[in-house]
């Protein structure tokens, strides 16, 4: 039950079960599960139904909803597609979707937090986020009753709402910069004693949690899709879909061909799009003016072994640059056709699908899985109690930057421990 190895995609060596990096090279690690067939545990709720393909030894009670996959009629009719399936991560009671953070980040957090709990080393988890990830980890950490440090840019503060009363052991730090500067600060904090980073794209629990989108999709479609569409920031979701597809091919019951990855970013702030297409990055003050700034990551895991570039190469994939205007129009079309609100990032994926249809890259009868990575926010805010997480500490991007602890560093760390101690 839930047994696995963690292997480096570069050197091929087996790594410790909770490792985030290989000591020999910079490649991503990947889980190898002893169970080679996709098994659903009907006695377990939500994403835990796929327990045998999650890198945990047990489930995390009170956390772990899964997406809902359904065959589209509305937007499929608009686009002239016969076999369009939608994976919806969000709040949509009529469809049975109960992800109250309204984001597919809800798939990453529970297995990552459970894996953290299983380490039993009494460390404090540090998570950087542009908003959606913070909500998911706040709910999972509250369910697990573990301390959590959320590091966010100021633009994310109004997104820090959750539908359950947050744990007292959550500290929110706002870094006066963008998401990348929040990531950098979180990494420096995680390097200090008593703290540990969740690892981002390097954490196999995050990727395998997101891979549930593909697992749930094939159960509805009865086969692997020919095309997979998703909007990306770091591209980790694209890697997760690719890795899940490899496992499903090894299963043998769902087809022998990898789905073509169709990944999309919000131009002009689209590093992966420019890297993949060889285009020149347009100058600008990213992420300012983006339709959804959660899609901007200056340092994605692109060229590393097992990263985004390899996933695109192996699947003969494509990357789309979607303008604000295109995303805005696609969001309106989708919401009217499917009768549910979606987040702006998901609209970027819809716009990419529209482009693929117009260009003939996908055809009428092709089997397509569209990942709507967030939706139902309006419904959730109308129907559920909401709790806002408040900023506890504001810091400059350069905080904790000295190699040796300085008096100001010690003051900041003391303030963090005081906040956590005061609330515990």
From TrEMBL:
Highest taxon in the source lineage: Archaea
Gene Ontology MF, one: cysteate synthase activity
Location of the Tryptophan synthase beta chain-like PALP domain: 100-374
The enzyme's E.C. designation: 2.5.1.76
Pfam families given in the database record: PALP (PF00291)
GO biological process, one term: coenzyme M biosynthetic process
Keywords for the protein's UniProt record, in alphabetical order: Coenzyme M biosynthesis, Pyridoxal phosphate, Transferase
The protein's name: Cysteate synthase
Organism encoding this protein: Methanothrix harundinacea
């Amino acid at each position: 039950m839930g047994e696995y190895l963690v292997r480096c995609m570069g050197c091929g060596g087996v790594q410790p079960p909770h490792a985030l990096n290989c000591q020999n090279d910079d490649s991503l690690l990947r889980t190898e599960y002893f169970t080679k067939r996709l098994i659903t545990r009907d006695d377990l709720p939500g994403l835990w139904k796929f327990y045998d393909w999650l890198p945990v030894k047990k489930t995390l009670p009170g956390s772990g909803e899964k997406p809902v996959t359904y065959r589209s009629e509305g937007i499929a009719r608009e686009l002239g597609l016969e076999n369009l399936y939608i994976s919806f991560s969000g709040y949509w009671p009529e469809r049975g979707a109960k992800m109250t953070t309204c984001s597919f980040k809800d798939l990453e957090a529970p297995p990552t937090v459970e894996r953290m709990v299983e380490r039993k080393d009494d460390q404090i988890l540090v998570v950087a986020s542009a908003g959606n990830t913070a909500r998911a980890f706040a709910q999972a950490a509250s369910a697990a009753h573990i301390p959590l440090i959320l590091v966010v840019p100021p633009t994310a503060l109004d997104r820090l709402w959750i539908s359950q009363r947050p744990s007292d052991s959550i500290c929110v730090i706002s870094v006066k910069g963008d998401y990348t500067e929040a990531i950098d600060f979180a990494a420096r904090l995680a390097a200090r004693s008593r703290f540990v980073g969740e690892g981002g794209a390097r954490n196999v629990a995050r990727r395998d949690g997101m891979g549930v989108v593909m697992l749930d999709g094939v159960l509805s479609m009865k086969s692997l899709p020919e095309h997979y569409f998703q909007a990306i920031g770091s591209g980790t979701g694209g890697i997760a879909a690719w890795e899940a597809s490899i496992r499903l091919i090894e299963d043998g019951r769902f087809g022998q061909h990898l789905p073509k990855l169709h990944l999309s970013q919000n131009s002009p702030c689209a590093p992966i799009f420019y890297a993949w297409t060889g285009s020149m990055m347009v100058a600008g003050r990213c992420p300012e003016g983006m339709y959804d700034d959660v899609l901007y990551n200056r340092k994605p895991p692109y060229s590393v072994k097992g990263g985004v570039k390899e996933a695109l190469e192996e699947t003969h994939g494509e990357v789309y640059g979607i303008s604000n205007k295109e995303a805005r129009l696609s969001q309106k079309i989708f919401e009217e056709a499917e009768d549910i609100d979606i987040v702006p990032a998901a609209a970027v994926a819809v716009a990419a699908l529209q482009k693929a249809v117009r260009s003939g890259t996908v055809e009428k009868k092709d089997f397509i899985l569209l990942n709507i990575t967030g939706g139902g926010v309006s419904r959730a805010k109308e129907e559920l109690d909401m709790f806002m997480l408040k900023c506890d500490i504001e810091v400059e991007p350069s905080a904790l930057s000295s190699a040796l602890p300085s008096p100001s560093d010690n003051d900041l760390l003391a303030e963090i421990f005081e906040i956590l101690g005061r609330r515990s």
